[in-house]
Amino acid sequence: MQQTDKQETDNRQPRWSSRSLGTRFGHNIFHALIHLGGRRLGYFALHWVVLYYVLCRPSIRRRSYDYLRHRFPNQSRLSRYVNCYRMFLEMGHVLVDRAILGIMGPENMEFTIHGRQELLDLVANGRGFIMLMSHVGCWQVAVSALNFLKIPVNLLLEQAEGNIDRHYFEYAGVTCPIRIIDPGSYLGGTLQMLDVLKKGEVVCMMGDRVFGSKKSCLQVDFLGENASFPYSAFKIASAAGAPIVVFFSYKTGYDSYALKVSKIIQVPEDLGRSGESFRPYVTQFVNELELYIRGYPYQFFNFYNMWQ
Amino acid sequence: MTLNEKLKTIIIEELNLEDIRAEDIEDDAPLFGEGLELDSLDAVELVVQVQKNFGVEIKDMKEGRLAFQSINALRHFIEERMAP
What we know:
The complex is a heterodimer.
Chain A: H1 2-8, H2 24-56, H3 58-61, H4 65-71, H5 77-103, E1 110-114, H6 116-124, E2 129-133, H7 139-144, E3 153-156, H8 168-172, E4 179-181, H9 190-198, E5 202-206, E6 217-222, E7 225-230, H10 232-240, E8 244-253, E9 256-265, H11 279-295
Parallel strand pairs in A: 1-9, 2-5, 2-8, 3-4, 3-5
Antiparallel strand pairs in A: 6-7, 8-9
Chain B: H1 3-14, H2 40-54, H3 61-67, H4 71-82
């Protein structure tokens, strides 16, 4: 079965892209449905849309196979379809929730933050920190819930051409409450990140996506096979003397999310340029991510082959 | 050793550049984007090394653009800030 999975993923995209899976028309329909019938109608329509993608759009369906093959190595052909359906459905829930957050406001969402005091303690130290997240749960919910820190929050975010997903603040029609750092800007935005960390601010970034050069990646065991993970965040943390907070969100109910400080990683200063120096810290992050995925397998939204 | 030579040695040793000698690095050649093929994390390390070796801080992107144009530009940047 694994062999079949592997063959079916041959047509996959070689690299991750932030291009949306859906169409602008589809997004607009969901936007209208949420306006008309709220979350309930959005979720209802989602079942049919997801079914269509799973059964009738094999090119889209295949994008989930690399991850599902690693997470469920013994899955049958039928269970692969079911897993794909569940993964797409969770992804859809997150997209609907993100729209609801913007259209109907955060009062329509229940957040529980685990590790709030640890975050406040870091802020009280006066040093900036990196919140290292992943494409799990709804990271936008996580970022939107950081107001209580009362310090500026920056987000490293690539917006590829063709990405039509709207962020919650765009739905709300308000100014972006967070500052965006573009990884496509001068030197990948690294100097900007160093600057804001030294000022005691927060930088949010994804620990499971490779931007730019593969030179800044390490191969780390993830779900039984080596996968590429960037060590950029750890290098920047080391240079700025800033801790790394591994921060994940997960959907816990119909209208509720939990946000959790999974681990705080202290990266020593003066580790140099070699990627190998950062391996123990990257591995800590990957282990936390794997732990999350063991508990919430359908909330890891991975649609490219990171094991390639 | 001149400041330019010292900077080249730091770049080669601290950024682990293999098969490159100090005399291969031109004083006016861009440090990033071509030639040495340095990347954004090399820039982070260079910021650290400039502070460690010369006590000079490259504070933001604006200063980085100025300092990282070439070896000569970096030398000027350091000399200006080290001047009493």
